[in-house]
Amino acid sequence: MVRFLPAAISALMLTATACLPLSAAEPDSKNVEFFEKKIRPVLIDKCIDCHSGDDPESGLRVDSLAGLIRGGERGPAIVIGKPEQSMLVRTIRHGELVKMP
After folding, report:
1. Residue among 36, 68, 38, 35 at smallest CA distance from 52
2. Would you say the pTM of this structure is higher than 0.70?
3. Are residues 75 and 87 in contact, defined by beta-carbon separation less than 8 angstroms?
4. Segment 45-100, tens digit of pLDDT
């Protein structure tokens, strides 16, 4: 299995959050396919063990879009349409006090 570097993960998350719709409308099939092939595997490989289930670390669940938008103790993990403002992107870039993975 290929291990992603933080820069690669960051690029994927930037693209993913930029592709998310700004409205409540359903994402188009191209964006869903991108998420399923490029983003979900990273979340599963790097994040889901600690950030899912009944007692996720810092209250953040990454196993659903709703969980990412709701966020955890530090606020929303993603800001739809504004990847540079998304805590998840800043965290995986190691630009915050919290550095993941």
Report:
1. 68
2. no
3. yes
4. 999 999 999 999 999 999 988 899 999 999 999 888 888 888 888 888 887 677 77
Q: What CA–CA distance (Å, rounded) separates 60 from 87?
A: 11
Give which of 95, 87, 44, 92 is closest to 69, Cα–Cα.
87
Query: What pLDDT is recorded for position 23?
Result: 52
In whole angstroms, give the CA distance from residue 93 to residue 101.
9
Which positions ≥6 away from 43 have C-beta within 8 Å?
62, 63
In angstroms, the CA 27 to CA 40 distance is 15
Single-letter amino acid code for the residue at 79: V
What is the identity of the amino acid at 101?
A: P
* Residues linked to residue 75 through DSSP beta bridges, in sequence order: 72
